[in-house]
Amino acid sequence: MNRIQSLFANKKRGILSVYFTAGYPNLNDTVPTLEAFEKHGVDMVELGIPYSDPLADGPTIQESSTIAIRNGMRIEVLLSQLKEVRQKVSIPIVLMSYFNPTYLYGFERFCKQASEAGVDGLIIPDLPAYEYETTYKPIVERYNLSFNMLITSDTPDERIRKIDELTNGFIYMVSSAATTGGTSSMSDAQMDYFKRVSEMKMNNPLMVGFGVHNQQTFAEATTYCNGAIIGSAFIRAQKNGEDVDTTVKKFVSSITGNQ
Amino acid sequence: MGTKRIYTANFQLKVCGITQAENAIEVAKLNPTMMGFILYPKSKRCVSLEQANSIADLLPKHIKKVAVVVNEPLEKVIQLAESTLFDFIQLHGNESPEYCQTVSKHIHVIKAFGIEKQLPDNLEEYANCCTYFLFDTKTENFGGAGKQFDHKILDSYHLNVPFLLSGGIDLDSIDRILTYSNKQLAGIDVNSRYEDEPGIKNIEKLSNLIKRLRPMIKKVSKEGYYGNYGGAYIPEMLQKNVSELAENYQRIIDDPSFIEDFQSLLKDYVGRPTPLFHAKKLSAKYGYKIYLKREDLCHTGSHKLNNVIGQALLAKRLGKKKIIAETGAGQHGVASATVAALLGMECTVFMGEVDIQRQYPNVMRMKMLGATVIPATSGTKTLKDACNEAIRYWISHTEDTHYLIGSAIGPHPYPDMVAQFQSVISEEIAKQLQEKEGRSYPDAVIACVGGGSNAVGAFYHFIDDERVELYGAEAGGCGADTDETAATLTIGTDGIIHGTRTILMQTEDGQVCDAHSISAGLDYPGVGPLHAHLHSIKRGTYLPITDQEALDAAFELTREEGIIPALESSHALALLPKLKMKPTDIVVVNLSGRGDKDMQTYIDLMNSGKK
Q: Which residue numbers delimit the Tryptophan synthase beta chain-like PALP domain (chain B) (predicted)?
């Protein structure tokens, strides 16, 4: 059992996962941010490898990625930053990357080194089920990483079942048909979709992402599902210019309501 | 990706034992790579040198002729080699390494070995003088057993000489042979299994063999691959729309009522067929026959409308009411806005902020046609970012919107769908050449390549016809060896861009690079997966053309033939002086677009006194 799997085994509800872009706002913020997450009660982290053409992301994450790349962030740098991170924190780490950078790095080399650095899982939004199953699954499994796949409200039940079979961490439920960074509250249709999928009783826990940005949407997203992932809202919070610890502390309490 | 290899133009098919002229001509039409004449008196298929000579004369030059001899005196074989009748000598007896060595100084040598239980011990001694080895089943009489030896024996073969496989290869065993993993397997040699009687080949059986050997290069696999390139690398949010297209596009394209609607608009709205114009002055200048395929005369000024009409009609049949499109030069945007107006659909076009400035008249055309133009302000603010923005918009508007991709790029089924819609270009070229030249194919086709839609259209019907050379002109920008370039196939590496696995310009970290070209339509850091495949198997030749070369070619065409071409098409024209063709050769240049949109660039050049 890796850290993701034990998290879900021990905590069933209200799991908070926060995304941040590696190398943003500064190249060496990765480890301090992870420490602050753990200290202030973030349950899991989605650590984004910046990419020049992030199709599934909105402007907030793209902008942070552009800056991170300019800061010199690359897979090699990130993995070396993570090398001793397991002596400092035990929070589950999920690396999020578009497929191309990992492909160029060498997918197996990437998985091996990530695993050695203490990474627990991957999200690769543009590596579809077919390619994953036929080519990459054995590699991911060889290094004991969780592979966490996305579903949307348009995904047919049969495909959801298939994705549940291929996933071995959590299912990333895209809340709405949009890119990341939405700022409205959840609609009735979205709530119905969360309920519908939760009633399918799948093997993997459900984490809602996209459009979760405050206490209300976090509560809505976690009504039927195990937890939620917040990305753009945290990146917007990072712009306040406060130190990492203060930013994270204020942000977490704004989501969970705990002081 | 299965284990079956991709057999290409490089895979040799040798049809051996040719004895009769009419039959040989029929065999040649099937395009084997080699035809063999057996000059061994004891063979049932023996022909005299005179007979071989008179038959070989009737066959196209690109099919290699092989003389098969057995233990002939060395002087006689050298004489044969020097007669230039043959491209290869196949030594099918007990010829020594020294003998082969001497012959190889005069001609390419295929050395045959009869295999019984194991490979010959002294193979290595032949390695430096043979172009191919040929492994046949061992018989008393040097070949002709028509039986297979145990191919497992070849697992121990590890020399660098490629080999042909012979002996009883029938249709039942061909698939097994094709999955055979020894990478030196370069082809097969067939004879008695494909005959009506000794020396007379059965054309139907051979034709079936060829279909098995060479699945059409241009045909995409079920998962959307051309060889290693293609596929659909898309986030789950696009899965529904893209799957819906993939599951339905071929059915709709093949539907007779769709074909009727499509053909009727191509004829009466686009203005097809476009002329095939014999450019006499250019021909005289370069010393071979040059035709221009006048896509610039299509409504809206380029080939783009062919694909746009096809996709818009298809989208309507899928119940979509809105179309979105990306555009570089504005040609695809204008074409999309035009068809949206015609078919009563809502149209939104994404265009890089930089391109909006350099293609202002096209922006106004789109607006006049009722389209909304949204500037792409992310990244480099050019075509790739317009694609990103269009995809993002599509993610948020999946319900009633079709993303009308303007080039042979994007996730499956787009590259194949666009290729099929644009294939009207090569279909017309074939027909028009038949009328004008009495043959349905040129010796070469040239087209410019950005994403590659006009090129794939001009190549399409010729991709699997090895008589036709395919040339793509990439945008070299300031030079393919500088940072200011868009010569993707020249300098790019394998990766994923906009949902397809292809070749792209990227950093070693896998970040997509900025492309540069004087022509906005070629300013793209990727290329369609079929072009990546054609490039990788060497079926197509892709060369970079600099901004300056393209400009020179634009002014040359204008002054020689009175046609002002688009800067994109000028890249194709600029390849003309670089080709090595014979005076009788016919070359078709796909003149993909007209130069109106580039007038400001041309005007600036003239005002600066440089033209």
A: 271-593
